[in-house]
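Example 3.
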Amino acid sequence: MDTNEIILAVVCAVLVVFSLTVALVVPKRNPDFPVGKMVAFFAVSIVLVGGMLTAVEVLAGEEEAEAAETTETVPPTEPAPPPETGGGETVAPPGGDAAAGKEVFTSAGCGGCHTLADAGAAGTIGPSLDETRPAFELVVDRVTNGLGGMPAFAGQLDEQQIQDVAAYVAGATSG
Ligand code: HEC
């Protein structure tokens, strides 16, 4: 119970007592309520109800302010740091490390199906990457999803490795 609630309770009590007095006591004592007193009764009623509403509003306002303060004290969730993209001394497209990608190309067996002079690969099942010179996005898509005789590597390579091999293939064939 803070000060506001006490004030509210008092205003409330006064309003109740006043209403009961007017409703029960006055008519008994004075059955034909004179017009002059009627006006006074309305004036007092309006003041009391007004006071009550003001008290409720002030109280509600303060509670809202308190609630807002409580919300503010909750620490904001830390934004996740941007994923590491791997440094590149080569002119690799963004998002992949070409040097790491060469390792991936060899270890994942891309060379068994593809020809890529830079990697010493001479596979002939898939198209020669030296000839098709695929763009970074195309390599990411093919390696992730596969197509026809090209297997999907999404389960075998993680996102970073796919980005790396794409950077390598795109970089090694672009010139
Ligand atoms: C089992 C054989 C096989 C392996 C292993 C394989 N590929 Fe392929 N790849 C294919 C075939 C077949 C296609 C042609 C798919 C089509 O377009 O129908 C292809 C298509 C592609 C293409 C699209 C070429 C173009 O220009 O259309 C890229 C890029 C590619 N592969 C990259 C890779 C990389 C990188 C790896 C290693 C992670 C890899 N492939 C492993 C068989 C293979």
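Residues 105, 108-110, 112-114, 125-127, 132, 134, 138-139, 142-143, 147-151, 153, 165, 169 surround heme C (CB under 6 Å). Residues 73 and 157 are 43 Å apart (CA to CA).
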